[in-house]
Specification:
The complex is a heterodimer. Chain A is α+β, with helices and mostly antiparallel strands. Chain A has one domain: Beta Polymerase, domain 2. In chain B, a hairpin with a 2-residue loop joins strand 11 and strand 12. Helices cover 45% and strands 15% of the residues of chain B. Chain B has 18 helices and 13 strands.
Chain lengths: 235, 447
């Protein structure tokens, strides 16, 4: 891994999932150098660096409490989380789809956790992360302890199934429908998983990266401005 | 399932369909006798579509009601009529251009959308601490003025939907005072794109502080007209007291925030519990009521406007001269805006600098405006207290000059889920009050 300024520091013995992304193509360098955009630059970054214990502050309390309570419900201690990531002062627990419902139940019911509110679920599509293309991200809030954590679940494009948590957090009903609508993640056990924003007969899931934005080129006085998704990108 | 439609009249939408659940008659205004005649002897189940084009549904909201007489047995919402794909569009624009899009989401509280978006970008950039004091004060001031204008629309349209037309006239009249301030400060009444990553687009114009003070002196007198009509008014209370009941456990389960949550007596406000933009340094109260009903929610909005005016006054006292954008020239917009003969644009001094004096400044300007700045890879969740509750932004960057994914957790979207809990078992007319008390803005719901 090259030492570039936007690469987070990863501890040597961290449990790494395949989240290091390499980008090629027409983008600008982070600092100085070639500004033409045609230099064939290569850049690598990691999506969510794994954090090692101690996490610091209340992060350890929350993480220990989840592991302990989930173990009491029959999950093996070492596999409650796939990984824990701390970035910009926010903690993310990566959980496998099988463990999601247990972790959510524990987050809601355990007195030392008391995450009363799940602020919904949001999808993110990482087509380059083979086998873990679709992520569902649940921002959680504890009003009692005034804390926020994030739970993230990754599934593959071929088998995009995540258990629904609508019976645990009823407010997630519409959020799960929206995530199905936009990403095609199937929430098993949802009381009525239908499209919510797009029309019922809409083909495809618009927020996925392989779904084009669409749009038409603009012609004005003989010149043509390409549609937004065909314009030169530096990303 | 076999379906066939028979067009028995000239109206192509009227007629009946045979489904697995029996014959379904669609009524769109034809002769009622033909319907009652045809439906005679069958089990009756009346499903009424209210909206999406209906003056009482608070925008393009479609209510699907199953009714028995005047009693609602089931209520469901149909949304999506105002979906514009803003989140998708954001992935094809620079981080700065994104502000222009998000301001159009919840169009009654544009400054909250902008601030939430910018706070998230700044958190990803790690420059939250570098935002100049003056920019933060201006942001708070704009947000609180916006809270007043948004609540005024909530009272105005809520009143209108329940038949109280005078509050509507007064509400929109007073909102105009606030919109005039927005126009003076940002150039636009709505969709200002004024708050930018790193600060605000430009400083307050000359005379703005005096104009805001004038408005702040006038507003309380004018607001009294509205509150006189909506507080302790027996007719209004008859329509709102005890209606749209939603208690604290239900709010928690459904993730309801904002005035609806505070109407259960729980003073949860992110400005107090998780402050941003320096809210912890302002002196204000979080009003609550414990009635859990529509009347309480309207009372709360009236009181919240008073608190907002308190905050705006404190902002005006704190405004000290200084920059309104971060110092980092790799993020700050490279131009000074000024009003020219053809409207707002780059100041002549800046154009002279880049065109005649400094080649580097020209390159810098060109690169930053066309390509934008880069944001280190990672994800954040940033929540602020909008007039309707928790407005959360989940933002993912892959290290590029465009957002990788931005999701707005809009309070209207979430809170609309309470429609069924608030209105099932009640009267059809009370649904209107219940939804008005949520104050959903469909632009935010559908994005």
């Amino acid at each position: 891994m090259t030492n570039q300024p936007n690469l987070p520091v990863v501890p040597e013995n961290a449990a790494l999932l395949d989240t290091v992304v390499t980008k090629h193509g027409m983008f600008s360098p982070s600092a100085g150098g070639d500004t033409s955009g045609f230099g064939g630059l290569v850049e690598r970054f990691e999506l969510a660096p794994a954090a090692m214990k101690p996490f610091g502050g209340w992060f350890d309390d929350v993480s220990d409490a989840i592991v302990k309570a989930a173990a009491a419900k029959g999950l093996p201690t070492e596999s409650v989380f796939e990984r824990v990531s701390i970035d910009r002062g926010e903690i993310t627990f990566f959980v496998s789809p099988q463990n999601l419902r247990t972790v959510m139940q524990v987050l809601r019911d355990e007195p030392s956790l008391r995450f009363e509110m799940c602020m919904g679920v949001n999808g993110v599509h990482y087509p380059f992360e083979t086998g873990r293309e679709l992520h569902a991200v649940y921002p959680m809030q504890s009003v009692t302890h005034n804390r926020r954590v994030r739970v993230e679940v990754a599934v593959s494009d071929d088998n995009p199934h995540i258990p629904s948590i609508v019976d645990i957090y009823p407010g997630n009903n519409w959020h799960e429908r929206e995530t199905w609508d936009f990403f095609g993640i199937v929430f098993d056990g949802h009381p009525g998983l239908t499209r919510i924003e797009m029309p019922d007969d809409w083909p495809g899931h618009p927020q996925r990266k392989d779904y084009p934005l669409g749009g038409i080129d603009i012609e004005y006085k003989g010149a043509t401005v390409p549609a937004p998704d065909k314009r030169r990108s530096y990303s | 399932m076999s379906e066939q439609t028979t067009h028995s009249t000239a109206d192509p939408y009227a007629g009946f369909t045979d489904t697995t659940e029996g014959r379904v008659h669609t009524v769109t205004g034809q002769d009622w006798d033909t319907i009652t005649g045809a439906a005679a002897g069958q089990t009756e189940r009346l499903v009424v579509n209210m909206g999406p084009q209906h003056p009482s549904t608070h925008g393009v909201l479609r209510l699907i009601l199953e009714i028995e007489g005047e009693t609602v047995t089931e209520a469901r919402c149909g949304i999506g009529y105002l979906h514009t794909g803003i989140e998708k569009n954001l992935e094809y624009r620079t981080w700065t251009q994104g502000v222009t899009f998000v301001t159009r989401m919840d169009y009654l509280s544009p400054f909250f959308n902008e601030t939430a978006y910018c706070l998230a970008v700044e958190k990803l950039l790690g420059i939250t601490d570098q935002i100049p004091e003056r920019a933060n004060v201006i942001r708070v001031m704009m947000m609180e003025l916006n809270r007043i204008s948004s609540h005024l629309v909530a009272l105005a349209t809520g009143g209108m939907e329940l038949g109280a037309l005078s509050p509507m006239i007064f509400g929109f009249r007073e909102r105009e005072l606030v919109l005039d301030l927005f126009e003076l400060i940002t150039g636009l009444r709505m969709n200002s794109a004024y708050i930018r990553p790193g600060g605000v687009a430009q400083d307050l114009p000359d005379g703005a502080v005096e104009k805001i003070r004038e408005t702040l002196d006038l507003l309380p007198k004018r607001l009294k007209d509205t509150s006189d009509l909506l507080v302790d008014n027996q007719i209004w209370m008859g329509r709102t007291v005890g209606i749209g009941f939603l208690d604290l456990p239900t709010c928690m389960a459904l993730g309801i925030t904002g005035p609806v949550l505070r109407s259960t007596g729980f003073a949860h406000d992110l400005r107090k519990s998780q402050p941003y933009c320096g809210y912890e340094t302002y002196d204000f109260d979080v009003p609550t009521v414990d009635t859990c009903d529509v009347y309480g929610r309207f009372l709360l909005r009236i009181r919240e406007m008073q608190e907002s005016m308190k905050i705006v006054r404190q902002c005006l006292d704190r405004l000290k001269p200084g920059p309104v954008m971060v110092e980092d020239a790799k993020i700050a917009w490279p131009a000074q805006l000024a009003v020219g003969s053809d409207g707002m644009g780059n100041s002549l001094a800046h154009i002279r600098n880049i065109m005649a004096e400094s080649m580097e400044a020209l390159i810098h300007h060109f690169k930053l405006v066309t390509e934008g700045f880069r944001v280190p890879a990672g994800q954040v969740y940033q929540a602020i207290e909008s007039p309707r509750g928790e407005l959360g932004v989940h933002m993912v960057s892959d290290g590029g000059t465009r957002p990788y994914r931005v999701h707005f957790r809009d309070p209207s979207f979430n809170n609309l889920q309470a429609t069924a809990a608030m209105s099932e078992g009640g009267q059809v007319a009370d649904i209107i009050g219940a939804i008005a008390s949520i104050d959903p803005v469909m632009g935010g719901v559908d994005r």
